[in-house]
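Sample 3 of the quickstart, ligand AR6:
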Amino acid sequence: MNNIFEKIKIIHRDITSLKVDAVVNAANNSLLGGGGVDGAIHKAAGPKLLQACKKTGGCPTGSARITKGYNLFAPYVIHTVGPVYNKKNNNRQLLTLCYNNCFILAKEYSIETIAFPAISCGVYGYPIDEACKIALNTSISFIKKNSFIHQIIFALFSSEYKSIYENHFEIIKNTQNLPS
Ligand code: AR6
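Result:
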């Protein structure tokens, strides 16, 4: 179990600065760029990323698409579209799908190190406390069953979000390490 937890890193960093196999983009359905982390990734990757995104034809909410990383350190960008948070909606299911679909592409492209932003937690309004549980639980479930992933980095843009992730990660570790 410890080995699994060691694969997860929570950091306060601009995701575009990371030297990983893939960075995940919190995009919109058009995949044609936007603000927030999407804007930062497109700016750092350069105009070829937009050209590649145009060829994808967009992406439904909860799905994921892959392109090269161009001028980024990361050779790949996995674009996923999180749900716009709405209390009546199936947010949890869609956000879980985002993480799982990114992992499916990671497997297909032999991606061993991957960095996620807090998908849907900016303009899409997903409460960070709920979203971080989904991010961590989905990732832990996946790495328990798939050894090809060496590292999952959660690159948070504020120290507040980093603390929220860290606190929840501690709770998971303490719960899952309990003797049965
Ligand atoms: N590195 C890491 N995290 C970042 C960075 C960065 N460089 N920049 C922002 N964040 P958001 P969403 C954080 O709004 O809620 C776009 O316009 C940010 O502080 O980027 O999924 C798309 O085109 C927040 O915690 O994504 C869509 O239209 C998190 O990344 C829409 O926003 C996600 O915030 C998607 O909204």
